[in-house]
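Hi R.,

Here's the chain you asked about this morning:
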Amino acid sequence: MSTKNDYEMKDEYDFSQGVRGRFYKPHKKSTTIRLDDDIILFFKKKASEEKIGYQTLLNSALREYIKNHAVNE
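And the predicted structure, written out as tokens:
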């Protein structure tokens, strides 16, 4: 039998063994974008060297740009 205390928030929780992003799955959206040949070749070559998909590498580069250029509101 549950009591009211079973559902109350604790003052502190231990997340030291937690895994960041474990249940996060980004939603992918299909789009068309025109990129110069040299940009595509660069990312495809780099992705091949790192053994990851070039679109994954593009996403990572764009996220890094956003992180470094975001305006705090």
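The chain has two helices and no strands.

Let me know if you need anything else.
M.
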